Every structure is written in structure tokens, then in C-alpha cells.
Amino acid sequence: MLNSIKRFLLHLHPPRVEINAIKLNRTFGLGGMSVFLVSLLALTGILLRFVYVPDAEKAYRSIELLNHFNSAGRLIRNIHYWSATILCLFSVLHLLRVLFSQAIYFERKKNWYYGLVLMFLVFAFCFTGYLLPWDQVSYWAVTVVANVLRYFPVIGDALASFLLDGRFVSEHSLLRFYHLHTGVLPVLLFMVLSIHIWLVRKAKGVAIPQEQKGQLVNTSPHLVYKELVALLILIIAITTLSIFFNAPLSTPANLDRVPEIITAPWYFAGMQELLLHIHPLVGGILLPIAFLIFLIVVPKMGLDEVKVGVWFNGSRQLKKLYALALIFSVLLTVLLVVLSDAIIKDSFNVIWGTVFMVSVYFVTVSGFLIFLLRNLNRSMLSISMIVFVLFTGSYITLTIIGLLRDAQII
What we know:
The protein has 16 helices and 2 strands. By secondary structure, the chain is mostly helical.
């Protein structure tokens, strides 16, 4: 079996690779492990299809039978759940790694865009799969997301109705999510992932600084064995989680009773927390679109300053400013959440509360950037990366607060 895996890995890599490209701190193995997780999800998903029934009357029962009367089936579902959870995490970390190692510029720009599409598909998989157990938590969480989509200008109602196959979440929605999850999205993911891997090969592998190039080693054993060790550790971690922690399943979906607390999946916890404090049009539509536009534009910024393959563009000063920006974003976000919980909810309606929160955030961030510019060479690359750190730090903070709120710790 190891020989088969080895031959497969050799198809993904050139016969010889740069020795500096296979160091652990170059990629942390995030891309390769993500590809493995996609394969594992495909395998476990196919097995689950033999048991799962995409019907409002039978979906929950089929999962319940899998959990309580088939230990192997429960393990397979747990592996599927934890693999998806880890894939979401690795996708975000991989994006951050590529961005901060300056591997999104010039000939790699196109692959950055394919990577963004891949990350969208990964979260689309998680979202469509979230409804399939047809339990109380998933039903009402999807209902909330669909209602947020309706705030999208002009096409919001049409977009939500297309997704749900109707006005409300129903058995038609379940069937549509099932076909998207098991039919449409796998085809799209396979196509985009194939192009993504091919473009990595075309760009001659991982981005490394020019001065570190020139020393080639055989892919096998130098790279293949490292990947096998990483995959073995990942398999052990997933198996351990799957044995001791079951995939969540609440009570059957009750369309007539709205739960007191509607819990989003962890990867949407930051968005859920944001929507508690500002209007859905701003928090659920405008801010995500603005962030997406930023990710699309960033490979075109500061091209004359880029050092491809160099972490944080090789500037020690910039590393310190990144850390300062992260700390600032965390403190500011916590302060605004506390302010919103203590004062704004009782003193403002949702419109004025949104105006106040957004204004305070952007005015404060702008002042912070002006302060930092005194210590910067005012380069577009530096400014764009600090803005990214500020917004990303705020969203991560919101995610942590949202998870703590869901767990009723705060």
C-alpha cells in the first residue's frame, strides 16, 4: 500500500525538487494534507450515501440508525465530520501561508484566484452538508443564513429561493442541498483542484527566494517520506478524534418551534457574532464582499517591492508591525463587542447601532494606520498586508467570542 501511495505522490510532484522548498517551515504540509483530506472526504462520503436517505421524514432517522446501531457507520460519519472540520481550518491556514510568504504574485497570481475558488467550494461543501442530518440545530442555522442572503440588493430573494428551492427551508431544500453536496460540488472541486495542482507544477513548485534556488534533490525519498509522515500523523489525529468525539446530532428538526439559541457551525461563528451587533446587510453582505474584493486586488499591489517566497517580505520591522496590528485588532474588537452588549443594544435601533459600530471601528483603524505610517515607507504592499491583518484579526476574535457565546461561557 505504501508503494501505491508513493507512486501516487510522485505523480503530483516533479522527479526532482529544490531542497529549500521541502523544509517544514516553507509550507507546513498544508496543501498536501488538504488534498488528502479531500480524498478521505470523498471516500467516506460515498460510503455514507449507502445509508443516508435525503427525505425529510427519513433523513434524521437514517443518521440516528447509523449512530446507534452501526459502530462502523458511526466511525465513518465521525471521520467525515472531523476531516471536513480540519479541511476548513487547513484551507484558511494555507491561504494565510501563501499570502504571507509572498507566493501570490506574478505567474502565481492565477493560482491564487483558483485557490480562492477552492476555499469557497470547501465552505460550500460544509454548508450544504450541515443541513443533511435534518436536526433542529442545522435546520434553523440554514434558515438564518438564507434570511441573510435575502438582504443582498436586487437579487437577494431570488438567490435565497434558488438555494432553498422555495421560500422556506423544506424537504425540497434538503434534496437540493443533497444534490449540491454529493453531485455538483464534487465535480467542481475536482476540476478546480486539478487546475490548482497543475498550476503549482507549472510554476515549478513551492515559491522560494531566488537566492535559495539551485540545489535539487530526488523527490523520493526526500519529499515523499516527509509527506508520508505528515499523512500518518494526520490519520492518527483524525482517528483519535473520531473514536472519542462523535459528530454532533441534536433533536429532529421541528419546523414549528424556534430554538432559543441558534448555533452556527464553528466556521460561521464569527459571522454569527458579527450579525448580533450590526445589520445583516452590512455584516452579512457588504463586508464579506469588500473583503473578497480586497483578496482579488491584493496580488496587484506593490509589485515592485515583492520578494517572492520570503516570509513577511523579509522585513523585521514589518513583522513587528503585523504583531502590533493583530494585538490592536483583538483589543478593539473585544472592546466594541463589550460596548455593544452593554450599551448599544438597549440604546439604539439596529440601523443607528450599525452606523455607530462601523464608524467607530473604521475611524479607529484609520487612526491606527496613520500612526503606523510614520514608521513605514508608505509602500502599498506594507499597507495592504497590515489592513489584511487588522480585518483578519477582528474576524478571528469574533469567531472565538461566538464560540464562547455558543458554549454559554460568556
